[in-house]
Amino acid sequence: MFSENQWIKIKAPATVANMVCGFDILGFAVNSPYDEMEMKWTTRAENEARITIINIDNYNLPTDPEKNVAGAALIAFLEEYEEKQKSSSPKIKFEVKINKLIKPGSGVGSSAASSAGAVVGANYLVGNIFSKDDLVRFAMNGEKLASGVKHADNIAPCIFGGVTLVRSIFPLEIIALPSPTLHVTIVHPQIEVRTSDARSILRQQVLLKDAIKQWGNIAGLVAGLMKSDYDLIGRSLEDVIIEPVRSILIPGFDDLKLACKKAGALGGGISGSGPSIFMLSKTKEIAIAVEKEMKQLYDGIGLPHHTYVTSINQTGVEIIE
Amino acid sequence: MFSENQWIKIKAPATVANMVCGFDILGFAVNSPYDEMEMKWTTRAENEARITIINIDNYNLPTDPEKNVAGAALIAFLEEYEEKQKSSSPKIKFEVKINKLIKPGSGVGSSAASSAGAVVGANYLVGNIFSKDDLVRFAMNGEKLASGVKHADNIAPCIFGGVTLVRSIFPLEIIALPSPTLHVTIVHPQIEVRTSDARSILRQQVLLKDAIKQWGNIAGLVAGLMKSDYDLIGRSLEDVIIEPVRSILIPGFDDLKLACKKAGALGGGISGSGPSIFMLSKTKEIAIAVEKEMKQLYDGIGLPHHTYVTSINQTGVEIIE
């Protein structure tokens, strides 16, 4: 165990789920933005709270552990932790300070960063007794609280880093996929797209011929990443099922995508359920040119927005003591 | 150009399309069975036939080039070849002898072997002026004749060897996927499943949640092949969309699959549209044990059958002068 009553610092990266054609299965972590957290453990007296959450940002997120995504993840963590402990062991509690730098609702895994950061931090404090797969399982309880669905496509890359494949949810199976250097440009138009709305507009049935196109692209994308074949990655970043439906929720989507590709982006699309849009590029120069196109388009229609020029993060949640 | 009036010998391997979860996109070539062919070119007089087909097996397949899959592929080949030639160049004709060792209708790419063998042979005779992608395009005309659909999931591995991904048909894009050593057991129960029937019973709509499972498995299979991760390959060999529908056409399918996996097979399923069933194994010993299970099951229900124990062929169609 790490020393009692000693704070650790945690960096929890933003993540991009779906990666265009890989709805519900693919995702990757980015180097910015990221949440900052601090955590410590102390011995807990009988009847004392097991989790204390302190927000040091201005988002006014709930601090009741059962209503906070980091709290929900830590509850799942502590349940299994306490089962593993001898009955004679001292009970512990966690204090968590959260400084959210990833704007909630932006579509780049803000809730996943809190959930994943909390359980990676907790695991570090108790001596890393759980596997990364276990941590994903705990953190998914945060996603369940945030969106109603226990999905792992943000949690997995947040914890593993890099590009991850969630091959199966039950049983949970996560596969780290190697990838070449990829620069990422993200634009967050300041509109609200609720994950539950973005999910409810999807058709529950898809045409077999579209599904075949989609799995051709997914296979192409995985092969492209593993072969470091940028052109193949670019050609495979096509979604014939989800994007045509969801993109209507995002103003200027089609024009923006076209302009970014003209500027040299390999491809991209909606980040998670939106409203953020991401683009992948081979060089930082192209990623900056892509940012310029994004700004120009949203300035042109007077829509406030934030942009990030970053790259794929290969480490996932990091502990800085 | 290769010498006029000199026969070359061609080996065209059998192929397994779909590879369980990769309907219409994945396929691989095997070392046995294979078709044997011979081909030569000669100068053609005006009004003389451009293609002569001679069957030296007992299947009585059509010898009219327009009704023979190798003929249909060669017609497409010659059209582009003649376009490329100067008008002053001598016109050529091909003679093709086909010894079919891959039983037509067995579901292991018998028509693809004839089409692919013919165009690879023709390309060799004219000095290899066409790319493999071009050859796939020509050979797909044979598939169109055989099944009504220009599919490439047998043609591509037959020409490229190994495991191939058809990421897209229009425009055609084939990606060779590296794979570890894999032993293949095939059983061909002597029943007739027509490709057109096997296609017509498929539902044109699939549930989104099934499609998501399927593309998780496809991504897992591609990653498993490229990482040489046998367990991941095994877990990913699952088809929740096509197999549940098509397997009802094949007697004993579920029991056979279960018995083969118990004997140590990584997994497997219907080869193409059936009726053959294939299983992948890590070692030759397991592949032989799997064959024993197959024989036992079909002997038990009195269904005549053929089995093959082979491995993935990495070269595709071969020319033996």
Descriptive notes:
Two copies of one chain form a homodimer. The radius of gyration of chain A is 20 Å and the shape is globular. The relative contact order of chain A is 0.18. The mean pLDDT of chain A is 95. Chain A has helices at residues 69-84, 110-125, 132-147, 155-160, 195-200, 208-227, 230-236, 243-246, 253-262, 284-300, and strands at residues 8-17, 26-43, 51-55, 92-99, 163-168, 173-177, 183-189, 205-207, 267-270, 277-281, 305-311, 318-320. Chain A has 321 residues and is an alpha+beta fold. Chain A has two domains: 8-177 and 314-320, 2-Layer Sandwich (Ribosomal Protein S5, domain 2); 183-311, GHMP kinase, C-terminal domain (Alpha-Beta Plaits, 2-Layer Sandwich), CATH 3.30.70.890. Helices cover 37% and strands 25% of the residues of chain A. Chain A binds chain B through residues 21-26, 165-168, 173, 175, 177, 202-209, 211-223, 226-227, 232, 235-236, 241, and chain B through 21-26, 165-168, 173, 175, 177, 202-209, 211-223, 226-227, 232, 235-236, 241.
Annotated CATH topology of the largest domain in chain A: Ribosomal Protein S5, domain 2
What is the count of helical runs of chain A? 10
Q: Which chain pair shows the most residues in contact? A: A-B, 40 and 40 residues
* Secondary-structure-derived class of chain A: alpha+beta
Can you tell me the CATH class of the largest domain in chain A?
Answer: Alpha Beta
Which oligomeric form is depicted?
Answer: homodimer
Largest sheet of chain A: 7 strands, mixed
Q: List how many beta strands of chain A DSSP finds.
A: 12
Rg for CA atoms of chain A: 20 Å
